[in-house]
Amino acid sequence: MGMENQTRVTEFILMGFPGHPLTRVLLFLLFLVFYILTLTGNFIITAVILCDRHLHKPMYVFIGNFSFVEIWYTTTTVPKLLSGFLIERDTISFAGCFLQLYFFFSLGATECLILTTMGYDRYLAICNPLRYSTIMNSKVYTNLALSCWITGFMIYVIPIVLIANLPFCGPNEINHFFCDASPLLELSCSQSHTIEIICYTYTSILIFSIFFLIMVSYMNILLAILRIPSTTGRQKAFSTCASHLIVVLIFFASIIFMYVRPTAKYPFDLDKVIGVFYAILVPLINPVIYSLRNKEVIRALKKTMWSRIGFPKMSH
Ligand SMILES: *[C@@H]1O[C@H](CO)[C@@H](O)[C@H](O)[C@H]1NC(C)=O
């Protein structure tokens, strides 16, 4: 607090997870394993979907893009977190901090938009099967995927420029493992809370509208599934959508908990734990939920792997 110290902060210190050196090394190893698994899983899925021509269909193109976003989404936070475990004083420059914030939020927004598109795509496929292939032709799904990226990278430009222009006069210790919006807003020495309120309102409206759109798609899907007469048809449709819905619910539960709230604060260590959920764990389990439960992806995966290793054919 206090405006007496008017020097501008030039770097921030990320507190991360302080603790005994041994605990930190163990956490380093744990998160390193998570990170390697996340990269491997998402990279394999992206590559398989790009390489297998049978998977050049809207649903897989979206899943491929989703996995590709996940690779970059975790990469904005985890490498810095990992290096922080090994050094005493983990600093990040002012510009670096806001770049991290920008990419984290933009990639997160892109991810939400792709999830929305996937919901809409499944809605069309299940509720409008006869017209599906004409509506969702290759031009349409390419444009949809592109617009998720473009919109995702534009949505947060203004809020982040606003936050970066707030006065930061110290202290400069961020009690979090990356430059997230709420600990940064907390550090600003601005007397007015206008920007803070604008940013929370903006994010809340955005998150709730996207969540609402996704839920409308899945509600319609659910109603359509209940009307399918055959049990096997019902089960098949249900199992794809259930896995999509699980990812959506975990992701939105954590970001709603984190970002849709007034200035009332949770204890910061709880923030860090939730941060681990949406920044690290969701990208880790996504490939499993989205793809490995999907027979076509598994089939393509086996085919690609066996043909690379040199076996001529793989019986199922
Ligand atoms: C992402 O979407 C674009 C546009 O539809 C597509 O060309 C590209 O292959 C997709 N990427 C992946 C990894 O599926």
From TrEMBL:
Q: What is this protein called?
A: Olfactory receptor
Mind telling me which residue stretches traverse the membrane in this protein? 25-50, 62-87, 99-120, 140-164, 205-226, 238-260, 272-292
Show the GO cellular component annotation of the record: plasma membrane
Could you name the domain of life of the organism this protein comes from?
Eukaryota
Q: Name one Pfam family in it.
A: 7tm_4
Give the family, as the similarity comment puts it. Answer: Belongs to the G-protein coupled receptor 1 family.
Record flagged with keyword Membrane: yes
Q: Which UniProt keywords are listed?
A: Cell membrane, Disulfide bond, G-protein coupled receptor, Glycoprotein, Membrane, Olfaction, Receptor, Sensory transduction, Transducer, Transmembrane, Transmembrane helix
Q: What PROSITE patterns does the database record attribute to this sequence?
A: G_PROTEIN_RECEP_F1_1, G_PROTEIN_RECEP_F1_2
- Please name the gene that encodes this protein: LOC115457187
